[in-house]
Specification:
The structure is a homodimer.
Chain A (H helix, E strand, L loop, with lengths): L9 H6 L1 H10 L4 E2 H8 L3 H13 L3 E6 L2 E6 L5 H8 L2 H21 L15
Antiparallel strand pairs in A: 1-3, 2-3
Chain A binds a DNA duplex through helix 3 and helix 4.
Chain lengths: ~120, ~120
DNA sequence: TTGACATATTCCGATATGGGGATATAATTT
DNA sequence: AAATTATATCCCCATATCGGAATATGTCAA
């Protein structure tokens, strides 16, 4: 098999940075494709294609108005990501506390060695 | 070009559902690879490979202990996702409020027409 | 009906992926 | 040193992706 398809879920759809940019533009409100194109300065087909992906996973909504298509963010679909990340909230809160504690101990008892600080992702 | 590499950023690393499963396991605390393998029941190389991706983007930290490698979640790296999603918080809050408002108006003033409700992702 | 405007779709090619399986590296025990 | 345990790496391949460019579809106006 290969990588999880972009339309598999919201996480995959949003992984593409360009798609997050599109969502940023739409954060200002409902907008026709043309406006997004001129705001971002990308070729129109690219914008349309990214919008299709966002639409397939439900992150945006479309509405026709004359020859335009007005896209709008579908907020609730973003919440799962928020909720998932929130699951790990204690990991950055706790870590902050731990770092603070270590900093205090160093300041009180030792002269810090000229090495890496604990918690670094080194170790290879 | 092709798709954004999985090691490009945290969003791409986490897009893979299996990788989120690995993080879930690590949420219970620091763990050697073998434990993750037996918990998830996947082939060991797969687990190692996913761990490498998570490590490259900084989502986990490694520490050697004898012949084992103990992996641990690196919380702060998850926060950017949380922060990004939080940017759109108003979109699901507002939408809730709007739905509520519409429901009240319908109940008070009209007999609802047998059509779609506004905001539907239909229109194709 | 012809033309202009707005958007979507198709075809192309290079690329990184993830799983499978085999094997390499590293640390420990006997 | 040899065997064992723990983990990482390598090779192979089917697949979906993204951008580019061209073109199709749809809608409105004259």
């Amino acid at each position: 098999m290969a990588r999880t398809p972009t339309t598999f879920d919201v996480f995959n759809a949003v992984a593409e940075p360009r798609r997050r940019e599109v969502l940023s533009v739409l954060a200002s409100g409902e907008s026709p494709v043309g406006d997004i194109v001129s705001t971002l300065g990308w070729p129109q087909p690219q914008v349309s294609k990214h919008l299709q992906v966002l639409h397939q996973v439900g992150l945006v909504t479309v509405r026709r108005q004359g020859r335009q298509r007005l896209y709008r963010i579908n907020g609730p679909e973003i919440k799962p990501i928020y909720d998932w990340a929130a699951t790990f909230e204690r990991f950055w809160d706790h870590q902050l506390a731990a770092i603070k504690k270590r900093a205090e101990q160093k300041a009180n008892f030792t002269i810090p060695p000229a090495g890496r600080s604990p918690g670094d992702a080194v170790n290879n």
